[in-house]
Write a structure and sequence with these properties.
Elements lengths: L40 H32 L3 H31 L10
The structure holds zinc ion.
Zinc ion binds next to helix 1.
């Protein structure tokens, strides 16, 4: 008598780290595509948000630097524009963090990889 086993793949995120993702891979890798499940639903949804967080974080650092220079130069027009841009980037970052935190909270009850 043979037992048919369904292959269950574990999410690859953090697989080489001390804290690998514990969820079952159900989605293709958001970076490399393909049809094979490579990451869990959380990381498939979460990863593009982290890219946005990185991009806006870097942009915010640049705006801060330009803002310092504009203040040194006492350029009030540029200071006003950069302050508005900084507020916009901060608001977007707050939103992305809120969404990723919400995704993580919602995913705490998904099925974990067998044996974890
Ligand atoms: Zn995962």
């Amino acid at each position: 008598m043979t037992e048919q086993m369904t292959e269950v793949k574990r999410c690859r995120m953090g697989s080489k780290s001390a804290a690998p993702c514990q969820f079952v891979a159900t989605e293709p890798d958001p970076h490399y595509g393909g049809d094979e499940p490579a990451v869990c639903a959380l990381h498939a949804a979460d990863e593009p948000l982290h890219e946005e967080i990185n991009e806006y974080g870097l942009a915010l650092e640049k705006v801060e630097r330009y803002l310092k220079k504009a203040r040194r130069d006492e350029n009030t027009v540029l200071i006003g524009d950069l302050e508005r841009l900084r507020a916009d980037y901060r608001e977007r970052l707050d939103f992305f963090y809120e969404v990723t935190n919400g995704l993580r909270a919602a995913n705490r009850k998904v099925t974990v990889y067998p044996g974890v």
